[in-house]
Design goal:
alpha/beta, five-stranded parallel β-sheet, Rossmann fold, 55% helix, single chain
Amino acid sequence: MAESYIRDYLDEASEIIKTLDVPSIQKIIGLIIEIRRQGGRLFFLGVGGGAANASHAVNDSRKIAGLESYTPVDNVSELTAQINDHGWEKSLVNWLMTSRLGSHDGVFVFSVGGGDKERNISANIVGALDFARGAGAKIMGIVGRDGGYTAKVADAVVIVPPVNPETVTPHAESFQSLIWHLIVSHPQVKLNPMKWESAK
């Protein structure tokens, strides 16, 4: 049983890799290049596992791609103060307002469901996306299943194919990491060498 789960899980990952939409990834790369050329900033948003991925992606985006990048989840004091004082739904919107999000900037969402307005799921991401649209920022995302609200409003989105309804979350969050590493290491995006690749 345990071994069959491992094999099935890895087979699912292999199937996802084969069916990922390459043009969508290329479109995100194009938007990131445009943001950097215009002197814009990239704001990564996520909750739960997506928050951890957002923090890691900020590091790679700044260090490898030379792109000014931030995420609200890196400052737990400010984030929890926003939640405490203004509510979960406004926590990311208020942070983006203070950051003066504008038309040269981008918002990049890591989410399994992508947010759902009608069912009030990931309401803070939904609110942030509405604010980003109003500010004219470019919207990107790597999401699971049908992509939810993120897929509806994004300029470019990669949907991790749901090959098994029982493993949507782990695959979506795992492939967020795989895809953003692909993006920052892409020859058109990478500006600075990575340590082990450049070590003699």
